[in-house]
Every structure is written in C-alpha cells, then in structure tokens.
Design brief:
The protein is of the alpha/beta class. Helices cover about 35% and strands about 15% of the residues. It has 2 domains: about 1-30 and about 80-115 and about 170-245, Rossmann fold; about 35-75 and about 120-160, 2-Layer Sandwich (SIR2/SIRT2 'Small Domain'). Bound molecules: adenosine-5-diphosphoribose.
C-alpha cells in the first residue's frame, strides 16, 4: 500500500485527529518559511524575531515585521489549507494547531484553529496591553520611519505574536488537545521549535499515530508512522483522493 492510502486509512480510523501546521503550508501562498531552502533565516538573523531585539531596536524590529506583514496581508489560502478545512468539514480532523500567524487556516474555512504563535494582524501595547490593528502600526512606521507607540501610555506597540524569548500563551491549550488526540497530521513544519513541536510528540507518545508531510527531514521522522516528502498541497490532495475512492 502506498503512503497516501495508508495515511487516508489512518485518518479514517482515527477517533480524534488533529493537524499541526508550520510555515511550509503557507509557502504555496507565497509567504516564505523560516528554515526551508528559501527560508527567512537564510536572509535575516532570527534574533530579529526576539523580545530582546524589540526592546533594543524597535525601529529595526518594525522594519522586519513590516516586511513580514507585506507577505501575509495579501495572501490567500492554498489547496493545502483548503484540504485541511475539508477534512474538518467531513469530521475527520477535529482541530488545527498552527504555528503560523497568517490567519490562512481560518480564511480557508477551518473553524477550530489554535494559533499558538499568535496573529500578526493585531498588535498590542507591550506595557498596558491596549489592542491596535497592525495595519495602523505599519502605516505609522511607513509614514514616520519610527516604531509605533501606544496612544494611551506611550509604551511600545508590537504584533500580538509570540517572539523568541517569550512563552507561548496558548501552548497549554494545545497540549490539552494533543492529550485527547490519537492522530497528528503534521504539515509543513521543521518540527524543531519547542514547546510547539511537543504537540506531535505528545500524540505519538500516548500511542497515537503521526503522519508527517514535509520537504525536509525533521527530528520526529524516526517516530512517525508515515513520512511524505512532497509538496503539502499535492500530498493532501492525494490523500483526499484516497477518501474519494473508498
Ligand atoms: N510542502 C511541504 N513542505 C514544505 C513546503 C511545501 N510546499 N514549503 C516548505 N516546506 C517545509 C520546509 O522544508 C521546512 O522544513 O516546511 C518546513 C518549514 O519549517 P520552518 O521554516 O522551520 O517553519 P516552522 O516549523 O513553522 O517554524 C516554527 O519557528 O521561527 C519560528 O516562530 C517561527 O512559528 C515559527 C517556528
């Protein structure tokens, strides 16, 4: 049996399957990933996405995030996002846990989405928590060339995302879902950023199945039931076809 057939069979047999996604699912929507062949961390220092850098050089920090915002703001979901939404509609996938900050799963129609690294479309004051749409921060940055500040307390504004050196707020909720799940379908993640990468590990350690779809090898390939090194959209569409042929 080929990998797609086995993956479809495992998904159909699962009681509570979840998807775990990373930047690789959005590259087909023209949003660069971090560690792939054209990844951002080949062109930029990962420190630019850290809390330390935000505090030390807010202008440089916003220069970097204005670029990332540009990639994301006009992006549309691709066939891989749509396939996961369809799998949820059919009752096969119960939730999507994503490390992405691009809202594309929701845009594709997925209802149960947990964005463990936040959402770039909203920003907040780092001091008082005041919420501001990121589009306003970008406009301020572009018009003035300097980092936006809070209208209420003058604290520094920053996207409502999890920066390096910060704990992901929603990770406990993600772990709870993982503990209830018997299959994890990981799509487009290098699975090397913790604690998020614990999600597929928890599912596997508790006796569930792990299916990995990713171009590059990941540290969890060795414990996975199936590893598919294919383009995310093509792989998910091939799995869906197996469902159709049931
Ligand atoms: N199909 C399949 N795999 C793909 C595709 C595609 N179309 N495009 C890229 N990939 C693979 C790459 O080979 C890479 O291994 O997706 C993976 C993406 O890995 P990362 O860039 O490390 O992204 P991610 O796992 O989401 O990173 C986790 O790191 O920098 C932080 O906060 C950031 O949330 C992010 C976290």
């Amino acid at each position: 049996m080929d990998s797609y057939k086995i993956a479809a069979k495992l998904l159909q047999g699962a009681r509570h399957a979840i998807a775990f996604t990373g930047a690789g699912i959005s590259t087909e929507s023209n949003i660069p990933d971090f560690r792939g062949t054209q990844g951002l961390w080949k062109r930029f220092d990962p420190r630019m996405a850290s809390r330390g850098y935000f505090l030390e050089d807010p202008n440089g920090f916003w220069q970097f995030y204005a670029k990332r915002y540009e990639y994301i703001v006009g992006a549309e979901p691709n066939a891989a996002h749509k396939a996961l939404s369809l799998l949820e509609e059919e009752g096969i996938i119960k939730s999507v846990i994503t490390q992405n900050i691009d809202r594309l799963h929701s845009k594709a129609g997925s209802k149960s989405v947990l964005e463990v690294h936040g959402d770039i479309m909203m920003s907040r004051c780092d001091c008082c928590g005041e919420q501001v749409p990121t589009v306003e921060c970008i406009k301020f940055y572009r018009d003035s060339g300097s980092a936006p500040t809070c209208g209420k307390c003058q604290g520094g504004l920053r996207p409502s995302i999890v920066l390096f050196e910060e704990p992901p707020d929603l990770i406990e909720a993600a772990f709870n879902i993982a503990h209830r799940s018997d299959l994890c379908l990981s799509v487009g993640s290098s699975l090397c950023v913790y604690p998020a990468a614990m999600v597929p590990e928890i599912v596997k350690r508790r006796g569930g199945h792990l299916i990995i779809i990713n171009y590059d090898p990941t540290p969890l390939d060795g414990i996975a039931d199936i590893v598919i090194r294919e383009k995310a959209s093509a792989a998910l569409e091939a799995i869906l076809k197996e469902f159709d042929g049931r």
